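Consider the following input, taken from an annotated entry for inositol-phosphate phosphatase (Streptomyces capoamus).
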Amino acid sequence: MIEETETIEEFLARCSADVEEAVRKAAAAEILPRFRRLAAHEVDRKNGPHDLVTDADRLAELRLTEDLGALLPGSAVVGEEAVHADPAVYEALQGDAPVWIVDPVDGTRQFVHGDDGFCTLVALVQRGVVRACWTYAAAREQFATAVRGHGAFLDGQRLSAGSPEPGRDLAVATSHPDYTTDEQKRALRALWSEGIAPRPCGSAGLEYLAVARGALDAVAFSWEAAWDHAAGLLLVEEAGGTHLTLSGEPFRVTGGNALPFTAARDAATARRVAGLLRGAP
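Applying the prediction step yields:
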């Protein structure tokens, strides 16, 4: 619980471990017991054949909403499933109160298919600034965290994105074709060029983690949903990377971005990818 005169920084110094525990408990109670054990009635579709949701998504989000709200009274929670039920929930990102952004199962398609490439994403945002994030790949037993100004860590080891090796093709994960419109496909097609090795992305959260680890050079995404991006973008920033939209500005979790956008291991890579997305030679 935040004290009356406590700042967000002081709250995080005192309670970051409590947030991690809440994320681990939600995954242990609601996600992992259903991994590779989902019954047909536990899987639904939301906005199309590829947009899946499961009981694990719903129940983990409910648990996190309760636990995170208790840790920080007066905060709001913007969860993917809550916004699907009531789009007005998303408007909390425009306010002054601290906001927890929650994606209970990022990579639901992978989760449904029994692939371990999924994670739980939590970010704490205040006035549009991501202050801290927690990325938990429960099936892989990996936990990444970052607090703004204090670095990014994976299982206690500091992350450094570094820079791509000179002379090789840049590895770039892009919005998956199943989730893109024809217009978005045309914009992203610019990455199919000399010196770039694009591929469809999996879980956005795990792709951001790969950038922060230096295992992937960049991502190029065409959608704005804050629950997919807030945690990963801070992780990349705190590992030394950066992100750019088509306007040349950093991505804003509050929306209104010029899309597509990129997050990359270093500024030079971000400028190169963003330039291609803009159609620059």
